[in-house]
Amino acid sequence: MPNRQEWKQLALFGFLNTTLYLGLYVCAMKYTAAGIGSLAVSTNPLIIVLLSSWWLSRKPKTEDWLGIVLGMAGVGIATYPLLADSFTTSWGITLLLISMVAVSAASVYYATVKWELPNLLINGWQVLLGGIFLVPATWVMSDFSAMVWDHVFWASVLWLSLAVSIVGLICWFYLLRIDTVKASLWLFLCPLFGFFFAWWLMDEPVTLYTVFGTMLVIAGLYAGQKTKFKTSSRN
């Protein structure tokens, strides 16, 4: 069980990472086009770099900035066709920006804490506490009559719980312990995987914008990790 200090750390982390980020992001998607939502995720590395330089006194290296610029350019090019005729409100954009700042702050905060708990327990407690903090807003704002308790509902819940909230976040926490900024570069892959699943599951077309944008993202990831690749090669 966490001690008193760890409870405080887990509560703050869960509030930023689950309550604010996921709660606001889901609400924002009601007022924002899907392409904008995917593009918003790509701003996390930039926000994390800025927060890290202020919070952790970590001066970003040239390759970090190069990776961010290439990654954001790639995601912007890949999402451009999706944004051309989309409908988005200023309220949706505001909620998205707040949610991105919240999850970026959560990532930087996680890197500042000397956790003694294993990643599995950290993840479990922060999701539980974040969910508890969401209960009042859920109770007031949700339309429970719209829920359909069928196999689609339960399959979705299991996927979000097991694949996303357990496996995905444990991998993410592991990367954050290594290097916050370099880990954030991998967030550029989120919109690109969104394009892939849209093509695979919903028959949406893959355009030249998607291909070129993907190449830039891969180049950005390589640029951000280049020093590490060279060190590994020498070793």
Describe this structure in words.
The termini are far apart. Helix 4 packs antiparallel against helix 10 and helix 6 crosses helix 7. The protein contains ten helices and no strands. It is an all-alpha fold. The model has no long low-confidence stretch (mean pLDDT 83). Helix content is 80%, strand content 0%. It has one domain. The longest helix is centred in the C-terminal third of the chain and has 28 residues.
Quickly list its features:
235 residues; globular; mainly alpha; 10 helices
Kindly state the mean pLDDT as a whole number? Answer: 83
Query: Distance N terminus to C terminus?
Result: 39 Å
Helix content: over 70%
Count the strands?
0
Question: What overall geometry do the principal axes of the alpha carbons give?
Answer: globular
- Count of DSSP-assigned helices: 10
Rg computed from alpha carbons, rounded to a whole number of angstroms: 19 Å
The number of distinct structural domains comes to 1
The biggest sheet, with number of strands, parallel, antiparallel or mixed sense and barrel status, is: none
The secondary-structure element order is HHHHHHHHHH
By secondary-structure content and strand pairing, the structural class works out as mainly alpha
Poorly predicted regions are none
Q: Which percent range describes the beta-strand content?
A: under 5%
Q: Oligomeric form of this entry?
A: single chain
